[in-house]
Amino acid sequence: PPAQRGWVSALAGLGFPLGTMVGSAVVGGWLTSEPARLSALAAIVLVTIAPFALLIRDPQPARAVPARSAARAEDRSRTPPAVARDFSFVWTGRFLVVMALSLVQTYLLFYVRDGLGHGRTDAGAARGVAELAIISGVVNVAAGLVAGRLSDRLGRRKAFVAAGATIMAGSLVGLALAHDWTVVTVLYAAY
User: Is 191:172 a contact under the CB 8 Å cutoff?
Assistant: First the structure.
């Protein structure tokens, strides 16, 4: 429902921070051997997918649609969704956020180990990355749920999106300039 779009969006957005948090903890913190890490990740995938595979039934095929309705639906399907201005903004924004997250995650281990000197070894840096991911995941999940509820209550979505983008951008600039582990932890949590 339109009155709950912020809350539903917050719930839908839980996958990335929770996945990053659990994956980083398993791979970077708790397990030390590659076979154990890969086995744990495989088990996590199975455990999280099994309930959906076992409990959710596929919908029955829809009955035939009268020719006139099908023609109208086909005409609407030819209009590209990118024509809608809001869709274009959302798609571009989501693309840029995911791109930023992917780039930061890709180089985070090297930044922690080489740029900050935290951990001094790959294993120590991996524990640092896991620590950052867990702290960031908790903060991001809580902030997303609170912001989603507030945006529904206030009926203002764009202001929350703009505030989130500003916080992310500021955090990235701060991360590029920071040399202290505590500062990096706070900025990464905000990111």
Answer: yes
Q: 26: which DSSP letter?
A: I
- Alpha helices by DSSP H, listed for 56-190, are 67-77, 85-110, 122-154, 158-177, 181-190
Residue 73, pLDDT > 60, answer no
CA 20, distance to chain mean position in Å, is 8
- Rounded to an integer, what distance in angstroms lies between the CA atom of residue 27 and that of residue 131? 12
Distance CA 90, CA 161 (A): 10
- What are the pLDDT digits (tens) for 98-144? 888 888 888 888 889 888 888 778 778 888 888 888 888 889 888 88
Say how far apart CA 156 and CA 100 lie, in whole Å: 25
Alpha-carbon distance of 37 to 123, in angstroms, equals 13
